[in-house]
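tool=predict chain=A
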Amino acid sequence: VQLQASGGGLVQAGGSLRLSCAASGRTFSSYALGWFRQAPGKEREFVACISWSGGTKYFADSAKGRFTISRDNAKNTVYLQMNSLKPEDTAVYYCAAATDVLSRRSYDYDYWGQGTLVTVSS
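tool=predict ok
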């Protein structure tokens, strides 16, 4: 599976962005998908993930109530809608796919996209 993230950019605090991650491969619908982020000088951290059916979703505490995750298996795409953005959300956002488990742990993911930069100005 190859993943291509897009939708990052510069936004003011309080604004919104929608990230997309398009995947290649015919087995997209069988993967759990996740979003992670890495801020400068910090470790990569979990943001949100969604099961293959879209029926189960997990969020980091920092994302709850502000971010939503969804997927369109017909389009081989997963989305991260980010609202009420804060400067501390500034990071490179990565999408990832896992074959075996829906997880908050980055090491459970088998495939990674290249990342898209989100910058939130105060």
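The radius of gyration is 13 Å. Residues 4 and 114 are 6 Å apart (CA to CA).
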